[in-house]
Write a sequence for this structure.
């Protein structure tokens, strides 16, 4: 079996398994349509006012910074398992990777992105 044939078979198997699982869940899941299912849930209490509200951009910036360092950890764990076999080249490449991410953190810090300014409105 060639590489492209294996790829196509794996891709089709993945699509069929996902579609089959979703279809099976749709067939056997209980159906209950009522008004309460459309309401937002807030700790078991009825909501007051509208559920739609704007969030400050600071929340999103924190999320992006979290993802940036989360991805860094995802790359560092496999590197740490093979660090001895990579030698000096592997060490230099990971130091460059960490330096680039550190520059991003320093830039965000200098711009004041990491300062949390809470705005309480009543």
């Amino acid at each position: 079996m060639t590489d492209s044939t294996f790829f196509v078979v794996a891709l089709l198997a993945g699509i069929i398994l996902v579609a089959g699982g979703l279809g099976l869940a749709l067939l056997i899941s209980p159906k209950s349509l009522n008004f309460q299912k459309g309401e937002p849930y807030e700790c078991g209490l009825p909501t007051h006012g509208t559920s739609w509200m704007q969030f400050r951009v600071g929340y999103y910036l924190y999320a992006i910074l979290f993802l940036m360092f989360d991805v860094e950890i995802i790359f560092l764990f496999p590197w740490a398992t093979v660090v001895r076999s990579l030698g000096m080249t592997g060490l230099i490449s990971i130091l460059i990777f960490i330096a680039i991410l550190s520059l991003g953190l320093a830039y965000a810090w200098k711009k004041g992105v990491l300062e949390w300014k809470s705005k309480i409105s009543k």
The chain is about 65% helix and 0% strand. The two ends are 67 Å apart (CA to CA).
